[in-house]
Amino acid sequence: MIQIAIVEDDLEISQSLANLISMEKDFVLVKSFPDAESFISSFMDLNVDVVLMDIGLPGQNGIQAVAKLKPRKPNVQFIMCTIFDDDEKVFQSLCMGATGYLVKNTTSDRLSDAIRTAFNGGSPMSATIARKVVQSFRQRKVQSDEADLLTSRQWEILNLLDQGFRYKEIADKLDLSFDTIRTYCRNIYEVLQVHSRTDALNKVFPKK
Fold first, then answer.
1. What is the pLDDT of residues 31-78, one digit of tens each?
2. Which of 60, 92, 145, 172 is buried deepest, with most CB atoms within 10 A?
3. Are residues 128 and 173 in the same domain?
4. Which of 82, 78, 121 is nearest to 102 (CA)?
5. How many whole angstroms separate alpha carbon 147 and alpha carbon 3?
6. In this structure, are 109 and 165 located in the same domain?
7. 79 with 172, same domain?
8. Contact assessment for residue 55 and residue 86, using Cβ atoms and an 8 Å cutoff
9. What does the DSSP assignment read for the chain?
10. Quick one: 173 and 151 in the same domain?
């Protein structure tokens, strides 16, 4: 059985997803959550395989929630299920640990297939989204050999910096101290051979 959680603030959409899950013999709905905060507080106690995560949530958005939770339980698969389909949100979601990305007008059959695909190790997304992902990674291709030396945690922090978060905000999201984040960033700059956030981001993520 595939254990599923829903994080969605629109009650009608949340109920629609719950109805879909109830119709599949191999799906079990663990719980639905109306916001990221309630889901985050319950996450470590949940036995869940796949999370259907909205992006446009009140308070913390879905991308921020995935960034915080994916490192805690790497085996949990997050599918971003949202109205957004722009390049930047696709890129951010995948960088933060999302497994797949589907827009909310995806058919029931495709959503069911996506859940099973994610559970079995795949990365489900629509053809349009897949093309945008490829384009996004091509446009933001890392230009420096030094970037290959960054650790997964350093990449995580660098992507949060790229989204405009400050050290204190990153520390809160990752449950680390301000000094720890500052040390990580100092080490990132040293690896990339730069002296500032702007220089690091320009070196790793060339502007489109």
1. 999 999 999 999 999 999 999 999 888 888 898 899 889 888 989 999
2. 92
3. no
4. 82
5. 37
6. no
7. no
8. no
9. -EEEEEE-S-HHHHHHHHHHHHH-TTEEEEEEESSHHHHHHHGGG---SEEEE-SS-SSS-HHHHHHHHTTT-TTSEEEEEES---HHHHHHHHHTT-SEEEETT--HHHHHHHHHHHHTT---B-HHHHHHHHHHHHHT----GGGGG--HHHHHHHHHHHTT--HHHHHHHHT--HHHHHHHHHHHHHHHT-SSHHHHHHHHS---
10. yes
Domain that holds residue 173: 145-204
pTM for this entry: 0.66
Domain with residue 44: its CATH number is: 3.40.50.2300
One domain for residues 118 and 154: no
Cα gap 105→56, rounded to integer Å: 15
